[in-house]
Each structure stands twice: as C-alpha cells, then as structure tokens.
Amino acid sequence: QPSPDEGILAGLNAQQRTAAGHGDGPLLIVAGAGTGKTTTLAARVAHLIQEDADPAGILLLTFTRRAATEMLERVARRLRGAMGDAGERAAREVWGGTFHGVAARVLRVYHAALGLPRDFSILDRGDTEDLLDLCRGRLELPSASGKGAGARFPKKAVCAAVLSRSANSGETVAETLETRYPHLMQHEAALRRLFDLYDEAKGEQNLLDFDDLLLFWEALAADPKAGPALRSRFPRVLVDEYQDTNVLQARLLKNLAPDGRGLTAVGDDAQAIYSFRAATIRNILDFGEHYPAATVLPLETNYRSTAAVLTVANAVIAAAAERHEKTLTATRQIGPKPLVVRCRDEAEQARFIADRVLELRESGLELDKQAALFRASHHSLALELELQKRDVPFKKFGGLRFLETAHVKDLLAFLRLAENPRDEISALRCLLLLPGIGRGRATKAVAALREAGGEFSTWADSPAPSGGASEWTAFVSLMQTLAANRDDLSSQIRRIRNLYRPLMEATYANAAERNRDLEQIELLAGRGRDRASFLADLTLDPPSSAAATAGPHEDEERLTLSTMHSAKGLEFEAVYVLNACQGGIPSDQAEDDAAIEEERRLFYVAVTRARTHLTICHPLTRHLKPRGLRDGYGFAELTPFLTPAALAGCEVMPASEDAVDAAPPTPAATVTAADVRAAIRGRRG
Ligand code: ATP
Ligand code: MG
C-alpha cells in the first residue's frame, strides 16, 4: 500500500514502478485492459519532471484530447504532492494531445522552417472531400453520378478514403487500390492526377488536411537540418494506445526518436480496433526490431474490474484467432455476475437500461459513473428517446458530428475565411449564403480576393448584387472587421451570428434550434481564446454533439452514451452494452475474418470498461437493413462473441415475460397450418 515516503510513484505496484522509473532507453509496456498502463504513463511523466526533465520538452500523445487532459490532471496531482504549486505548473507545460493536435501546434511554432505560412487552415474530412470534388471538376473527370464515359469515377468520399489510406499506411496509391479497392484500379492514373492537383490547390490556398499535419511534422523531424533541433526541443515522447497507431505515425515516432531514446509506448494488442484507419498492431509486435535497445515490460494485475467481469472478458478474448497470452489477475474479488438480458426489441432494451440506470442511481451510483456503449452511433436512438422521456440527462460521444451540420460549418466558414483569406472553400461557402449570389459570381469574387492578396476591401469596391445589396455591404464590412482580429473571439462570433441569423431563418425550418447550437460555439470560445488555435481545436477534436460542448450545464451529472470506439481507455462502475447480437456487434459491415476479429476486440474493449456492473443486452428482434434487401424486422441471434465459456460467467435473464415469448429463429416447418387442419380432419374420419 502507498505510503507518503514513496514519493512521486506512490500507489504503484512493483511492475508499474519499474516501468514508470525506467531510464532513457526505448520502452514498450504491453499489458491487458485495466492493468494501469495509462496510470503508469502519467506517473512516468511526473517522474521525468521531478528528475528535472523540461516539461515543455515532453510530448504526450493520446487518442483523444480528453484523454490527454485527464492524464495531465493526474500528472499535476502527483507533482503537486511532491513539489507543490511549482509541480502543478510544470505539468501544465507538457505538450499533450492527439497526434494531429500536437502536430498542428508543432507546425504553428516551426512553420517557418518549412516555409509554411503561420496562418495555414486545417481541412476537416468534409472540406477535404469538397476540395477534391472541386479539383475533379477542374480536371474535367467524369462526376460520380455522370453517365457514359465508361466506368464511373469514384465518389469524393471514396477518393478521400483512398488518398488517406495511402498516406497512413505508407502505401503508394497503386498499392492501396490493389489491396483495398481492386475495382477502382482502372482509375489509378486519374486519381493520381486528382491528388496532385489537390495538393497544389492546398499549397496555393495555404491549407493542410489531417494527414498533411502528420506528413509535414514527419518531414520536419526527418530533415537533416531541422530534425536535430526538433529532437533536442522534444527529447521525450510518450504514446498511449500504441496498438492503434498506423505506419505513418510509427514512422513519425521513428524520426522523432531514431534510436528510441526517450520513447515510451504503451498498448494492448487485444484492444486494437482502428485498422480501418490503417492502424497496425505490427507497430507493437515489431517494436523490438525498430528499436533494438528496447525494453519490453508487462503489467499483470487488473485493478479495474471485479473477478466476475474479468472472467467474462477473458473468455471473450480467449476465443480470438490470434492472441498473445497475457496474465491478468483480478484484485477486486467481490461483485455481481455480469447480466445477459434478453429483450424483445430495441424499445424494450431501452426501457430496461433506463430502469436499471435509475435503479443504480437510487442506490447511490451517480449517472456519470454509468455508460451505455454501442457499435454504431444510430444504435442509441431508442435509448436517447427513452432517456429524454424520463428526463435523464446524458451526453453522447462519437455520435453524429456536431461540426458537420450545415449551420455550424457556415458559421465556422466566416471565421476561417477571416483567418485565412486564401481558403477558397470557406470563401465560396460564405458567398453562396448571400442573397443574389450564385456560383458564377461567387467564383469571380473568390478570384478577385486572390488577386487582391486577400484584402477584403476589394469586395467593397465591386458592385453589390441586385436583390442583396444590404446583405452584401454588411458581409464585406463584417469580413473587414474580422480580418483585423481585434475583438474578443466570442464577440467575433456574435457579429457573425447577427449577420447569419436572418440568412439561416430563410434557409432552415428549425432555425431557432440551430441558433442555440451556434450560441454554444460562442460560449465555447469564451474569453481570451486565440482564433487560430480555437479553429484548429474544433477541427481536430470536434465535440460530437451540442450537448458535449455543454457550456452552462457542464457540472450536471450525466449518463454517458458512447460508441465503443470512443470509450476506449475509459472506465465506468456500470456499463450497458447495447445490441449484443449478430449485425449489432459484429456489425453487418464486417465481412471477412480479419474484420470479425476486430469486432471481437471491440467487444472486448466494451466489456473491459466495466468496473462492477456489466449488463449486456440482446434484443431478440431488431430493425434490420441487410444490403440489397428491403428493411424489416428480423430475429437477431446472440453475438457469437459471448461464447459458452463467456456465458457461463453470466446470469442470463429476460427483460420481461414478453422477451421469453419471442422465439429464436426456427427453420420453416415442412407442414403448414392448412396441412395440420387437413390431418386433424382426416383423423376424425
Ligand atoms: P486500458 O487498457 O483500458 O486503457 P489501462 O491499462 O490504461 O486500461 P488504467 O486506466 O491506467 O488502466 O487503470 C485502470 C484502473 O486501475 C484505474 O482506476 C486506476 O486508477 C487503477 N489502478 C492502476 N494501478 C493501480 C494500483 N497500483 N493500485 C490501485 N489501483 C490502480
Ligand atoms: Mg489506458
């Protein structure tokens, strides 16, 4: 047990201590869920700072910004204990965030070394697709929906996916097409031309897309002149969830720490769930090859889950085709058996979960210690309705992107254009909102702005469009004001809202609701935020719903609704797994064995989030939409990931008597009801 004289590593077990106190050599910690990998990483950062490492020279790379913030809190707590306020201040200087977030920050500091203007804008996935589409048009490639011209050119989302896959996997476009999109091979030359033009357009407009952030950072780190400076500025790099890094990220790390000195990675190959983003567990498996000096340490005690939960989790992962045996011992012996609950349908599942959440709430378990997890964002719809009906507050992660809604994108386009007048996508977006301006006129206005070197005053000199003169004047003067960037960011947003509100009312039926979303953004901007970093944050780590930005109600206790992907690394006293059926998890999109194995690991991630109460729901009927068939209701079999061994550790119960009645799928009988009646008649003679 921890005692005060244990200092900065207080509360860690012997294995964790060895890892946290490890010297400078490359270190990999591979261990199962809940063994304290993240805890150990935080302790290691605190230890480094206490040992006089410059906190501003520490890069702490995590999967979400939320995870980084949480980890830095833990670092701060440890340091406050050991070094008082100075320690806490030091913790705030650590560079923590996602790969992309930290990349953006590094590039804002080192942009000049690459000859990159400081005010570059970041394209999100949607912008990337739009710009690709614009370039496609310029090349006069056939549009995806166009007729004739032989085979159809892929849709913009597919083009973006090919490009990103190739960047993240380190493959050429041809290789990516061959392995992932063989049916698009015939478009290889055209796609390469498209990607070249897209790169050119980004260069001209001072834009970077998500993948560029990593590629530019990598180029900087690999550079014979700038690289060494960057390395001495950031001599320590620590990475959580290493199993979900891809080839590009591994290459970047290799350039940041060529011999692995100062590099620490932690992960669990059994929790690898991002291969669709080109993540590869080869990074874990080959760590020793990439860094011959590497030390690999295990952690073997699980502190999170009760033995009852762990038994089920271990049985789930034991069935994996490929698996690296890990020892996991539970420290928490007492706890209820996990429940497998058969529900008639998704509505009953929602009612059951809501009941149970409130029941546990009554017995003292706060809402924020409970979470409902699901495979796909839309799986939570029925539950959301039920919770709303009962006034149970919740927050949703990994859902429909708040920032992808049109009105939010509109508002941000004004800010982005002000920040970077060369950003043509944002310029077009703003211009097309104005009455009296069509494509042709908008394109001309963009060209004029380009020629004027981004001076909005050039617009003031051009004639106003007929039927929209006052809006035009207001718009031009707004852009000039914003470009000066003198006001507070939230006042800037207020100005935009004033101009935008009537335009929005003319376009959308639910303008009032949308206006509240925009108000959230204004609140989020708060005081004293720097516009460029605010935009970068929003683009890189967007809140997934208006509620997630939760200005005024932030303190309110809320139930968590989250996709399984977005729940990784987190833990809750009570976890409810929704739709544990065929087509739920594994998803019906998972077709080959590798995809099914990834779904299994995802299910393992979900169940290992639970500390004490694990409830797995199996709706017996589900709304199905099998490809090629009409939608309808169908029977849903229990997920195959709950193997007999896993089920043996659970208590199986029906949510209600109704649920018992719903029959599992039965093959059609050889006789029909008419046959039976005929037989009865026959027997009567
Ligand atoms: P995951 O694989 O899910 O990311 P992890 O290995 O990162 O899990 P942590 O989240 O760091 O695990 O820790 C799991 C839980 O165990 C946390 O509640 C943490 O506070 C607790 N814990 C970790 N180490 C110890 C310890 N030595 N003593 C007591 N509790 C611990
Ligand atoms: Mg963790």
TrEMBL record:
<dbReference type="InterPro" id="IPR000212">
    <property type="entry name" value="DNA_helicase_UvrD/REP"/>
</dbReference>
<keyword id="KW-0347">Helicase</keyword>
<keyword id="KW-0413">Isomerase</keyword>
<comment type="similarity">
    <text>Belongs to the helicase family. UvrD subfamily.</text>
</comment>
<keyword id="KW-0547">Nucleotide-binding</keyword>
<dbReference type="Pfam" id="PF00580">
    <property type="entry name" value="UvrD-helicase"/>
</dbReference>
<feature type="domain" description="UvrD-like helicase C-terminal">
    <location>
        <begin position="307"/>
        <end position="569"/>
    </location>
</feature>
<feature type="domain" description="UvrD-like helicase ATP-binding">
    <location>
        <begin position="10"/>
        <end position="306"/>
    </location>
</feature>
<dbReference type="InterPro" id="IPR027417">
    <property type="entry name" value="P-loop_NTPase"/>
</dbReference>
<dbReference type="Pfam" id="PF13361">
    <property type="entry name" value="UvrD_C"/>
</dbReference>
<dbReference type="InterPro" id="IPR014016">
    <property type="entry name" value="UvrD-like_ATP-bd"/>
</dbReference>
<dbReference type="InterPro" id="IPR014017">
    <property type="entry name" value="DNA_helicase_UvrD-like_C"/>
</dbReference>
<protein>
    <recommendedName>
        <fullName>DNA 3'-5' helicase</fullName>
        <ecNumber>5.6.2.4</ecNumber>
    </recommendedName>
</protein>
<keyword id="KW-0378">Hydrolase</keyword>
<dbReference type="GO" id="GO:0016787">
    <property type="term" value="F:hydrolase activity"/>
</dbReference>
<dbReference type="InterPro" id="IPR013986">
    <property type="entry name" value="DExx_box_DNA_helicase_dom_sf"/>
</dbReference>
<dbReference type="GO" id="GO:0003678">
    <property type="term" value="F:DNA helicase activity"/>
</dbReference>
<feature type="binding site">
    <location>
        <begin position="31"/>
        <end position="38"/>
    </location>
    <ligand>
        <name>ATP</name>
    </ligand>
</feature>
<keyword id="KW-0067">ATP-binding</keyword>
